Amino acid sequence: MKESLLTIDDSSEIREAVELYLADDDLRHYHACDGAQGLAMAASLRPDLILLDVIMPGASGFDVCRQLKSDPRTASIPVIFLSGASDTFNKVQGLGLGAVDYVTKPFDPAELRARIGAALRSKRQHDMLAEQAQIDALTLLRNRAYFDSMLNQEVLAAHRFGRVVSIVLFDVDHFKHINDAHGHPFGDLVLRQLAKLLAANVRECDAACRYGGEEFALVLTETDLSGAQMVAERVRAGVSSLWLAHDDVRIEVTVSGGVASTTQFVQRDALTPASLLKAADSALYEAKTAGRNCTKVAVVGTDGGKRLPLAWSTATTTAGVESTGLCR
Predict the structure, then answer these.
(1) Is 131 a catalytic residue?
(2) Domain boundary residue among 133, 168, 186?
(3) Is 325 exposed, middle or buried (0-12, 13-18, 19+ CB in 10 A)?
(4) 19, 131, 154, 214: which one is catalytic?
(5) Domain containing residue 150
(6) Residue 328 lies inside a defined structural domain of this protein
(7) CATH number (domain holding residue 51)
(8) CATH code where residue 173 lies
(9) Residue 300 pLDDT level (bands cut at 50, 70, 90)
(10) Angstrom distance (rounded) from CA 45 to CA 48
């Protein structure tokens, strides 16, 4: 997959020169002529590198960089400043804002290519290390750190842009007994098979994570409560159908699930990553106490503008009960 470069510069000559000088580097080029357009494109495209002019109409490059670094969606994108000012003060200011380099105009084509190449190599290495740090070694799913980070970003997007996200927590029923009766290698097999099933039931924009021990979590973007409940039930039923054998004897494995969605929080100030997670966790607890091998949905209500405690909906799904809602 081609790496992408976003050039934010009000000069069409500079934008064209950058693309011409880098024609042999197999990059996908995007262009923005001012800071506002550049910020919007950076958030939607998530380029691998941004070339940012310092002096532009409206917001300066320094102002744009501050906004890029304050937005979780763009904070990790490396920025190289382009400027006609070569004084030390401007360079120090730019690097202090989080830029990885500062190139003075008019730039030498070979030097520009070398600096961009170095920035992209560092980005690739950083991405590789970050990817490895967010993978659970046993199941190869995303780990708790990734779940926490994505949940924070999605709740922030729910507040800023009205986006919808739902989460599902799963727990393997009687997992300690499985380990004690059949051994830890079989327990590991159960976790790996469950991980494969979870991964098969999410889209690329979602996340399937090992939350800890025998607990797993799904982050379902742009998915409302009914859609998340359908996914939860599909996973629950799929686990019950798994053929897992020990000493040629099939061992029945089931999971319980708890579902919560940002759409349940009528009072938006009550919506936080912690409150959404608590809602799903409470629903999971209810599923466990209700007999396991089922999914429960937690709802949050209001009364006269006051927040009520979590209440349990009647939307409980078990084997043989059809769930209704939006198709995904």
Answers:
(1) no
(2) 133
(3) middle
(4) 214
(5) 144-312
(6) no
(7) 3.40.50.2300
(8) 3.30.70.270
(9) low
(10) 9
